[in-house]
């Protein structure tokens, strides 16, 4: 899956077919970041793309931010914009093969980016838990749109119940509700969640 996924996303970036890229940090995630007080926590943003949320974290003074993407192109763009960002915090890798321990993982609709088989979605939940320290948090946005049989059309959808079925074995849900402050094009199509590792 790794090589196919890398080729797919790299092609999308090369062709500038990046409709998901809003060009700034998503409002719900920005709002969540604004209330975080400990700037030393170790954070991961998987499927970070151009890394606008990571950039915002840097501006807010967070010192231990890591970004991951399966395509090297957006990571290179991020590094151009943020030349002092540590190379060791930029992970050109397959999320499912990453190792490490984080206090917080920010989910920016990454769940909806890969082929939505039961195996992949179960592996996502398991890997998220494995990457978090004890009582670590998984926080962010999940698309609340129908999941169809079209495996070419991304983002892949899902609903609150199906997401919880995957996440509940590993996480306690603090909140998981329709997002009140989505950007206008995504209004009514996002869930905001805060999950704590069991």
Describe the structure.
This protein is α/β, with parallel strands linked by helices. The protein has a domain at 94-198: Rossmann fold (3-Layer(aba) Sandwich), CATH 3.40.50.150. Helices cover 31% and strands 24% of the residues. It is globular and about 40 Å long.
Short key terms for the protein model shown above:
198 residues, alpha/beta, Rossmann fold, 7-stranded mixed sheet, 6 helices, 7 strands, 31% helix, 24% strand, globular
Unreliably modeled segments? none
In what range is the share of β-strand residues? 15-25%
**Helix share bin:** 25-40%
Topology-level CATH name of the domain at 94-198: Rossmann fold
End-to-end CA span: 29 Å
**Could you give the order of the helices and strands?**
HHEHEHEEHEHEE
**CATH class call of the domain at 94-198:** Alpha Beta
Q: Strand arrangement, largest sheet?
A: 3-2-1-4-5-7-6
Given the structure, what is the number of helices? 6
Q: Mean pLDDT, as a whole number?
A: 88
User: What is the fourth-level CATH superfamily of the domain at 94-198?
Assistant: Vaccinia Virus protein VP39
What structural class is derived from the secondary structure elements?
A: alpha/beta
Shape category: globular
Largest sheet: 7 strands, mixed
Estimated radius of gyration: 16 Å
In total, the number of strands is 7
CATH architecture term of the domain at 94-198 = 3-Layer(aba) Sandwich
Keywords: Methyltransferase, Phosphoprotein, S-adenosyl-L-methionine, Transferase
Organism: Cellulophaga algicola (strain DSM 14237 / IC166 / ACAM 630)
GO molecular function, one term: S-adenosylmethionine-dependent methyltransferase activity
Protein name: Methyltransferase type 11
